[in-house]
Design brief:
The complex is a heterodimer of chains A (196) and B (197).
Chain A lengths: L4 H11 L15 H11 L1 H17 L1 H24 L8 H16 L5 H23 L5 H24 L4 H26 L1
Chain B lengths: L1 H21 L4 H12 L5 H17 L3 H21 L7 H18 L5 H21 L7 H23 L5 H26 L1
Helix pairs in contact in B: 2-7, 3-4, 3-5, 3-7, 3-8, 4-6, 4-7, 5-6, 5-8
Classes of the chains: A mainly alpha (196), B mainly alpha (197).
Chain lengths: 196, 197
């Protein structure tokens, strides 16, 4: 029955993100904890991380490890670059389009080459990290907040990918694929909003 | 007990995070998520059709039991996207009523078409449901959170249908499911009558 916890946790992650906020939330515990909470409360950042965790987990431990380090490292680099380089924000359709692609890949449950998983993680991490870096540029305790974000991403990705990797029964994998279809459906609606 | 304990352990941090955020959430954001969550269950026509998808999937068993509930939200989201973009779709209410009739009849008759046909049928009707949801968005609601609530709610309705459909393994349960299908189909006729009235 242990696998049953996964859909509950994924649903809880989505439900626990009621506010898509451009700036860091104020947890009251300081910038590190503000950053730590950020991926859990900003749905635009949470959804691709969840989808990548599911995708890498379905692919096995090796892909999970590459995704884990690829995502957090590229996110950190993206934040560092975004905080010092003035650049355009990602277009509105980017998050929705990404969710469609990642969700569809999870739903299809195809074993992707290692390079593709790592590449997807790098692209997601780089672009979302760049956006976070732009928002944090010049903020008090920005570096601490970025450290908090990276720690949260590492914990979230490793928990999700590790949990999915441990799933053996076909029924449990089906639940993950259904969750992927939900991510893709959310992405389609997000795209509709962007193109509205 | 183990499941309950592990679930509570998994949920704890997220409820905590949710509480922290709600303290700072703006009105529109809260409205967006709750609106999305409530919208699919706000109309009996949507509820019955989505539960019927789950019931039918349970009757058809694997792989339809998961393929149909996966097809519906994805195609419904496509319909919702069209609605959000302002693409006109004629006869939406008629399509929704027809979905209740056809899906109800499928459950009543325990229809067993090829898997592709069943998925295509469910997908066609999902476009109408999604389009209606997309065009009925309350003003000022947060789009992303509305979308999340909307998809989660739809998926849970399908899951409820599948869970109810588990009684299919018993002879009395099979009969009960067929009666439920008949009720959905009759309700669909009423919805169709209203759509034309």
């Amino acid at each position: 029955m242990r696998w049953s916890v996964l859909p509950v946790s994924v649903a809880a992650l989505l439900v626990a993100a009621p506010g898509a906020q451009a700036h860091l939330m104020n947890s009251g515990f300081g910038p590190f904890y503000d950053g730590l909470a950020h991926p859990f409360v900003v749905a635009e950042d949470l959804i691709p991380v969840v989808a990548l965790g599911l995708l890498a987990g379905l692919g096995g431990a090796r892909r999970g490890r590459w995704m884990l380090f690829g995502l957090t490292l590229s996110w950190a680099v993206g934040m560092a670059v975004g905080s010092v380089v003035l650049g355009p924000a990602a277009p509105d359709w980017w998050t929705g389009g990404g969710a469609i692609v990642l969700g569809a890949l999870v739903a299809a449950d195809r074993r992707l080459p290692l390079g593709v998983v790592a590449g997807l993680a790098a692209v997601v991490g780089g672009t979302h990290g760049f956006g976070n870096g732009r928002e944090l540029a010049g903020a008090t305790g920005g570096a601490l907040a970025m450290a908090g974000i990276v720690c949260a991403l590492f914990a979230l990705s490793s928990l999700l990918a590790g949990h999915v990797t441990s799933l053996k029964s076909s029924g449990a994998r089906l639940v993950v694929r259904v969750a992927g279809s939900w991510v893709a459906a959310i992405g389609l609606l997000m795209l509709g909003w962007a193109l509205r | 007990m183990t499941f309950a304990r592990t679930t509570l352990r998994s949920l704890g941090p997220f409820w905590l995070a949710a509480g922290l955020v709600l303290a700072h959430a703006k009105g529109g954001e809260g409205v967006g998520f709750v609106s999305g969550l409530a919208h699919p269950v706000s109309g009996l026509d949507h509820v019955l059709a989505m539960i019927a998808v789950g019931l039918w999937g349970a009757q058809l068993r694997a792989p339809a039991v998961w393929l149909l509930p996966v097809t519906f939200p994805m195609v419904m989201a496509l319909g919702g996207m069209l609605g959000l973009m302002g693409v006109h779709l004629p006869g939406v209410e008629i399509g929704i009523a027809a979905s209740a009739i056809v899906l109800g009849l499928a459950v009543l008759l325990e229809a067993r078409p090829p898997l592709g046909v069943a998925a295509a049928l469910v997908g066609c009707f999902a476009v109408f449901h999604g389009h209606a949801h997309g065009t009925e968005l309350p003003p000022g609601a947060n789009g992303l959170l509305y979308s999340i609530g909307f998809v989660v709610s739809t998926g849970l309705l399908h899951g409820s249908g599948v869970a109810m459909g588990l009684v299919h393994r018993w002879p009395a349960g099979r009969s009960a499911l067929r009666v439920a299908g008949a009720c959905v189909a009759v309700a669909g006729v009423v919805f169709l009558w209203r759509a034309f009235a």
